[in-house]
Amino acid sequence: MQIARQWTRFDHHVLEGLLGLGVLLAGVFGALVPLLGVTGPLPAADTRMVDIDGRAQVPGSPASGGMVLRGTHHAELALSDPDFGERLLLAGPGIVRSLLIAWVLYTLMRMAQTLRQGDVFVPANTRRLGRVAAGVLLVGTAVPLLDTLTTDGLVGGTPLDPAVRDVYAPSLGAVLLALLVFAAAGAFGHGTRLRADTEGLV
Amino acid sequence: MPPEEPHEIAVHLDRLLAERGMTLAELAERVGVTVVNLSILKNDRAKAIRFTTLSAICRALDCQPGDLLTYGK
C-alpha cells in the first residue's frame, strides 16, 4: 500500500514517457536510420566486429609501462564499397535487435499504462510478460545466430573466410534474463488468477 | 472450472429480507459486512461467499444456507 501511494500519477507518466522514449530511440536510431543506410539516403554501416582465429597481429602496438596491447582475437571487418546485399547483411542483425528491443519496451509501456490505470494484475499483462520474455530470448539467441549467418554470408568464399570464426555464441545473460521473466510471468499469471478468484468474495 | 464461467447459484436475500421486514442496512449492521458487499450478494454479483459471512447471515435471518442459496436460475 505504501509503495502504491508512492507511485503518483506523475511517476506513472514519467515511466511511460521513458519507455516511450526508449521505443522511439530504438526504432529511429536502431532500425530506421540503419535501414535508410541500407537503401541509400543515409551513409551505410560498412564495418562489423568479428572474431578471428588469432593469426592477425596488431601492428606496432607500443609497449608502455610494462603493458602491451594485444588484439589477435577480435577484428573489424571493413567493406570499402558494400553493395545493397552486403549493406543489408551488415545492418540486418542490428535492425532486428533494435526492433525486438523496441517491441519489448513497447510491451513494457503497455504494462505501465495498466499500472497507471490502477490494475496491473490483469490477464493481458501475463501475456505481455510472456512476450517480453520471448523478446529477450530472441535478442539473446536469434540475433547472435543472425549475426553469425550474416558474417558467414559476408566473408564466405572470400580470402578472409578461413581467418574469420563464425561461431554461434548466444548471450547467456539474455537467456537467463528471459528465463527469469518467463518465471515471473508464470507467477504473475498465478497471482492474477488468485486475484480473480477472490474478486467478488463477500 | 475457469473463473470466467458463469455460476448458477441464485441468492434469495431480497426475499428473506422482505419476509422479515429487515433492510439491507440493518442486516449489514448485524452481520458486520458492508452494505456494498451485501448489495453485491443480493444482486447476484458475488462470485464467492465466506462461510463466516454465510453463518452470520443465517444467524441474523434465522434461516438455513439452503434458504439463502439455491442452484439453478
From TrEMBL, chain A:
Transmembrane segments: 12-33, 88-108, 129-147, 167-188
Domain of life: Bacteria
Keywords: Membrane, Transmembrane, Transmembrane helix
Protein name: DUF2975 domain-containing protein
From TrEMBL, chain B:
Taxonomic source organism: Actinomadura fibrosa
Protein name: Helix-turn-helix domain-containing protein
Residue ranges the record marks as coiled coil: none
Source species, domain of life: Bacteria
Residue ranges occupied by any HTH cro/C1-type domain in the UniProt entry: 13-68
CDD domains: HTH_XRE
Listed PROSITE patterns: HTH_CROC1
One family name in Pfam for this protein: HTH_26
